[in-house]
Amino acid sequence: MKDIAIATTCLGVQVPHSPFLNETRIERIAAARYEGDEIKGALHVVRPEDRIVEMGAGIGVVGAVAAHQGKPERVVSFEANPALIEHIEALYALNGLEDRICVRNCVVLSDPDAPETVTFHVHASYLGSSLIEPEARRSTAVEVPSTRWESVREEIAPTILICDIEGGELDFLRHADLSGLRAVVMEFHPGAYGREGMRECKRILETAGFAKVEEVSTRLVWTATREV
């Protein structure tokens, strides 16, 4: 990995250069402000015995920091955007994390009637790429394989869910069995489903026994825990 150019470092994780980084993003990553609320939440709850499912890996920083700092037993990340996968894997390899974290190019769906593939809308900036077709911004539609949440639960037996899927979390929560999870770090996207949709997400978590951890939560990003 000595030929890899390093763009910056985030909490001990080296981040290689990629087409998805610009100067502003590099500065935010270096200051741990890129997805900073998710990172804070993850580091607050992750323990060495944990098995983490990350839905929406982005460029891989959040999952890598959780794997590096929290040293969980296992992290399996899911990312729908195929263009990001090689860069995520390069980040993991650069930091020697391949034995602890991996990424899969697919979408996790909890609806029992979900299709085997789904259309994913890739925006010019990877941020905001989503299963939801944009009304104004241009995007490129790609078909991405899906996997069932129940299958993921059976395989991994996750204890923590980290979720940033650009508006897909409401449909996921409506159908998902959250058994076995003791912590959730989730970003809400009211721009996709409105304030009532965000309130519904929070109600589902609370009904399942999760309580917001105030010191590492915001209106849009919750870290929530429960006894299991």
From TrEMBL:
<keyword id="KW-0808">Transferase</keyword>
<dbReference type="InterPro" id="IPR052514">
    <property type="entry name" value="SAM-dependent_MTase"/>
</dbReference>
<dbReference type="InterPro" id="IPR029063">
    <property type="entry name" value="SAM-dependent_MTases_sf"/>
</dbReference>
<dbReference type="Pfam" id="PF05050">
    <property type="entry name" value="Methyltransf_21"/>
</dbReference>
<feature type="domain" description="Methyltransferase FkbM">
    <location>
        <begin position="56"/>
        <end position="195"/>
    </location>
</feature>
<dbReference type="InterPro" id="IPR006342">
    <property type="entry name" value="FkbM_mtfrase"/>
</dbReference>
<dbReference type="GO" id="GO:0008168">
    <property type="term" value="F:methyltransferase activity"/>
</dbReference>
<dbReference type="GO" id="GO:0032259">
    <property type="term" value="P:methylation"/>
</dbReference>
<protein>
    <submittedName>
        <fullName>Methyltransferase, FkbM family</fullName>
    </submittedName>
</protein>
<keyword id="KW-0489">Methyltransferase</keyword>
